[in-house]
Amino acid sequence: MSLLPVPRVAVIVVAAGSGTRLGAGAPKAFVGLDEHTILRHALRRVFEAPPAQVIVVAPPGRVGDAVTDAEEAAGERRDLVSVVPGGATRQASVAAGLQAVWPDVEVVLVHDAARALTPADVFARVIDAVEAGQDAVIPVLPVVDTLKRVDADAVVEAVDRSALAAAQTPQGFRRAVLDAAYRGPAAEHTDDAALVQAAGIPVHTVAGAELAFKITSAADLERARGLAEPIAPVGGATPGDPVQPALPRVGVGTDVHAFGGEGALWLAGLEWPGEQGLHGHSDGDAVAHAIVDALLAAAGLGDIGGLFGTDDPALAGAHADVFLARTRERLTDAGWSIGNVSVQVQANRPRFADRRLEAERVLSAVLGAPVSVSATTTDGLGFTGRGEGVAAFATALIVPR
Ligand code: CTP
Ligand code: MG
To answer: Is the CB of residue 94 less than 8 Å from the CB of residue 192?
Structure first.
């Protein structure tokens, strides 16, 4: 249950068009700017704007996809967002969205999903102007090109551009005004301001933004792709990982510990009675530590030193389960599931042949994913060959949740 006040503003994001002019093989709002759709990018800005009920109007066949984008963009404010199926025209889609506006809402903004990069401050300006008493407000940009009135290929006259402006969205209205306009005669208009104006309501302007351009053609899409900022991962961004997970990722981790520690040997999550222990602040389990590093590296979450301080008393003598469970939690929080892990031990002792399956079971259980353990000697070469210590090499595959 949310204890936040019910917003008095609603934003209807129309995303039900087919994108005929773009011709990208999918409804326009579901075409990717990067690994995220045009709709997801548009909604990111909507949720950066002042709090509002958000209604996404989706093509009837893409409601499920729109819900995914909407919930991801809403994060903890999922209670604010809903998705409704749109109509055959933009106007019909807006009308469908209006049906879903909550009773307490007093200001309604209508926004094109196709204006995916519209900055949040444009929303704020439109809302402020309506709240200050205007019935209808649109963001505009001055026209920069020299304009001509033409008849086929003949120029009829020059047009004074100082009297013209390019209209953008979000367009904001006092709710009662927009409701009334949509209840009136159903002549088609290209935007909501035109519909409201046809009903005799004066429309005012605020400053729009270059970034609020509408993605209409393939060239617009290229421009938007160049300008889109990556969306941070679910569960919060971390340094070095600014991009929302979309593809599986792999990571590699290694660790080495010398024999000679106090107490029993712990390796691969198992205790090995009768074997010489390993040095290390914790139990020196090089296999577990290599796995932790592989997983953290795959997720771009740093390394074992960053996640587990050597001065943490809770970790003195801690075994693999503590390290691996905490690592798994960290990945879950960042939006990742573990696909599988493969780890190889290089050591003369202990002999893994008899306990390999047991080690795999223990490690797999704590990670909730298959862990394969293999072991090899190094033909008497190096520190492992001389029996001075143990080395472990791990590879991890992780997938977006
Ligand atoms: N829109 C809508 N329902 C429709 C038509 C359009 O919700 N039946 C939305 C589009 O999804 C877009 C906005 O209105 O966000 C502006 O429309 P436009 O740029 O014309 O998009 P499309 O109609 O999808 O594109 P096209 O005209 O090229 O087919
Ligand atoms: Mg259209």
So the answer is: yes
